Hints:
The protein is of the alpha/beta class. It has helices at 2-61, 94-108, 120-128, 146-162, 194-201, 217-293; strands spanning 78-84, 112-118, 135-137, 168-176, 182-190.
Amino acid sequence: MSDTTASLQRQIQSAGDLQSVVRTMKALAASSIGQYEHSVRALVDYDRAVELGLSAWLRANGSSAGLLNHTPPREEETVGAIVFGSDQGLVGQFNDVVADFAIKKLADLPGKARVWAVGERVHARMADAGLKPIGLFKVPSSVKAITPLVGQIQLESESHRVSGEYTSLYVFHNRPQTGAVYEPASQRLLPLDAAWAHRLTQIDWPTKSLPEVMGDGTTALRALIREYLFISLFRACAESLASENASRLAAMQRAEKNIDELMETLHRNFHRLRQSSIDEALFDVVSGFESLTK
């Protein structure tokens, strides 16, 4: 009996240690969600400024954004895709959701797909589906690490675009929703077509003074589009990281609930066995007393 109660005590202690770890990870996930969501909100004004700059250029020069999308002619269409996933576990179906979404969307697009994966787990998931990525990027561990990652992605994807290895570029990631919920999302980054240019030209200028584009118009346009692509990739990465931590937070909440139920069961069993051992000891004492009395 004592061995059984001792075993239960060890299980209770182990469950308590695990509960402490889960609560710590839960707190870290909750705080991480906040910083990534804040970084997305901080992009709003910057994104607005870049869009106004593009709108001013297009108004002055016409819808000529296609000059940056010229690629050498290819015999078949090829789609470039950037898929944001995770490097760490305890995120539930996070990688499966975005990978399945990207696989389905790419299957509906004409031509072959050239994929870059952000995160080892989504890299493996895409490879298992027959879309082995041509590049792998490490998932950033903080907001400050997003900018260097986006710079690497831009350099890598641009070198392939200039050499004519793809004709259009898409980004796939999970986007956070209300609470600890997320959904997969996609955005076509390139080519920048007439519909994209028309939308920008419809933006109302915030003041009565009309803007002018200074310097070389082509240089200004290239700089503005680089910033536009940077913002799109930065937002996708930050939203993916916020969704990852939301998924981890939900997993930790489920784990905490399961541990609480396990602890309750262990404590109940421990007290029952302890009471049983006390009852047996009392029964032995009473039996011995009655034997001596007789």
